[in-house]
Amino acid sequence: MEQQKFLIIGAGIAGISISKALVSEGHSVKMIDDGKNRSSIVAAGMINPIVFRRMTKSWRVDAFLPFAKEFYAKLGEKCGHQFMHSITIRRLFSSEQERDFWLSKQELEEFCAYLTKLSSDDLTYGKATNLFGSGRVKNSAFIATHSFLEESKKWLSTVLDLVNEEVDYTKIDPETGEYKEESFDGIIFCEGVEVRNNPWFGAIPINPTKGEILTITSETLPENESLNRKCFVLPSGNKTFKIGSTYVWNTCNDTTTAEGRKEICDHLSYLTSAPYTITEQTAGIRPTTLDRRPIMGRHETFPKLIVYNGLGAKGYLLAPLLGKELADHLLHSIPLDKEIRYSRLKK
Q: pTM, whole model, 2 decimals?
């Protein structure tokens, strides 16, 4: 195939995943990033294959998870860093019903890779408040987000043209695919919540969802597992933990708040009453959608303009494979999953 040339706007997890997919097939990529990442860099990077409310599997996890593991491992080799770290998630059940959901699923073949069969030790687990027992999730992990974004962009700068600037929409010709008089076969917008300012994709239903995370130190919380009930507790080493997260809909204000801090502390009280010290509070804005599915594809009027957005709270799990699927769609005309197509919004 003749080499094509793409312009990518945004260097978060979406931009990085599509860039890597295109470069891996030998195509030319220019990336523009303004350094104002409001989602990928703030996220805790948790990869959880289970939706706890009714103990179901995360959407398409059987495909997303193995691809993500390979993606982060290979990119880590190129960068000389390990980005993905396995960790068991221990779910502290919130009710007898939730425990029964787990028991009903743990024997099913489709859940064997994710749910550990409950043992007496799980039911009597004593390192956190445990009223109804607990269960351990297998094949869970977290991404070292700061290291991933920093080192990935360093590597990308060696294989593509990475420009640190804010995109100027007035310099884009939507019909020809030119930007500042440079021609591209496609311009891919990976802007997260900033898409609301986009002249062509600004109307897509991205719901900016604020999330706050605390960093704490604790002498009592376990460092070998990630606890989960009402919030997640992610060990960071040296008695340090990330605790989160809040969900505040329809806001692009990423200022940390006393309300967010209190909410997280209230949720943490469901897991422990032991003392801890708050050392940091951060906030970010997730690009979420009403149907919880990403939005990808070409503009209906200007096919050289492409959107890749709406990764929500599971971006680090979804992005690697979705980036490959978008590249396959653009390069080889392979149809996108109907659940994520931009065209679904036009019906």
A: 0.95
